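Q: What residues go here?
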């Protein structure tokens, strides 16, 4: 493993591949996120988006290639907030700051809860909060890790449209205020255009970067604005082509070889994505987190660099894994 510091990028993947047995999940992916940049990652179900995030988080190792992160700390947020149900909201946030003295931890937890507009909810238990509020707690916990790189795996996928809109606004505000670098996975093309400085499209298995779309629209954006819709439609067209191309390729492959059982519905097995969302392909949205992140890591909620030994070198000091 090479360790290097590069302050010019928050995250960089150089020719990163990941193989699970016979399955090539990612194929020589090249991608970078600049410090302070917000990059959204889109692609059909099963193209390797979560795999990519877990490699960057250090939860798994690439089969080939190199990953460089320069963040002091990398925090990860999942679709399910995974809070400890027996702890109060404040204690859940404090968990991310175990190295601090108790009094300081408490004060800082309250600050972070204020930041996500949950001041005064610290004594509640997670079950007393709505889904959106729980996700805010998860966001507060990520921030409490003092992360400057935030990896987000469909964090708002399970929320209703109105709550999602509100959280988009809050995430955008916090991203700006704290100068975070964000790599955000979503199936929702409009969400990607609403939030991203850049939208990166991954091909279907194996996952590979097929196109990048800079989003040059003024902020704050509205998910339902004409400008967002126009770019989202362009990206959706490209995504559809990619899904169709993959269906053709895998059709040829399966004609040559007997089909292997698939652990989850793939893009080509389901309906063509409707305009501006890739999520029609994903019957797996609910299963997703459970499938790709171990229960243990997940219980830790926002997995911090500190909590994961493999992340330590890169996340704390900036470093590269290969
Ligand atoms: N631990 C694992 N062991 C074996 N195969 C895996 C593992 N994790 C992921 N895969 C496979 O790798 C491929 C990519 O999975 P991944 O979850 O990264 O895709 P995704 O794009 O995030 O999917 P979705 O959009 O449905 O969440 C899939 O075919 C999946 O079945």
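A:
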């Amino acid at each position: 493993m090479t360790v290097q510091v590069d302050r010019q990028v928050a995250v960089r993947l150089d020719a990163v591949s990941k193989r699970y047995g016979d399955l090539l999940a990612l194929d020589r992916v090249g991608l970078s996120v600049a410090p302070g940049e917000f990059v959204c990652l889109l692609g059909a179900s099963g193209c390797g988006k979560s795999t990519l995030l877990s490699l960057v988080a250090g939860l798994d190792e690439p089969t080939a290639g190199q990953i460089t992160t320069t963040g002091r700390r990398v925090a990860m947020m999942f679709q399910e907030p995974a809070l400890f149900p027996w702890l109060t909201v404040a204690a859940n946030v404090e968990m991310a700051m175990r190295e601090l003295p108790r009094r300081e931890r408490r004060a800082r937890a309250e600050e972070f809860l204020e930041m996500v507009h949950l001041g005064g909810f610290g004594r509640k238990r997670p079950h007393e909060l709505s889904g959106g509020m729980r996700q805010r707690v998860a966001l507060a916990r990520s921030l409490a890790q003092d992360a400057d790189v935030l990896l987000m795996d469909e964090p708002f996928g399970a929320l209703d449209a109105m709550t999602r809109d509100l959280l988009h606004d809050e995430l955008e505000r916090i991203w700006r205020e704290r100068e975070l670098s964000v790599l955000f996975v979503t199936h929702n093309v409009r969400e990607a255009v609403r939030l991203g400085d850049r939208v990166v499209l991954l091909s279907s298995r194996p996952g590979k970067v097929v196109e990048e779309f800079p989003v040059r629209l003024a902020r704050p954006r509205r998910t339902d604005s004409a400008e967002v819709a126009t770019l989202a439609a362009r990206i959706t067209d490209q995504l559809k082509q990619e899904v169709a191309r993959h269906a053709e390729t895998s059709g040829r492959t399966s004609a040559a070889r007997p089909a292997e059982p698939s652990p989850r519905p793939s893009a080509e097995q389901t309906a063509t994505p409707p305009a501006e969302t890739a999520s029609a392909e994903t019957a797996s949205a609910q299963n997703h987190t459970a499938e790709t992140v171990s229960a243990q890591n997940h219980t830790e909620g926002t997995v911090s660099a500190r909590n994961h030994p493999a992340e330590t070198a890169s996340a704390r000091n900036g470093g590269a894994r290969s």
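A: Context that may help when evaluating the design: Residues 11-256+265-321 form a domain with the Rossmann fold fold (CATH 3.40.50.300). The first helix runs from residue 49 to 57.
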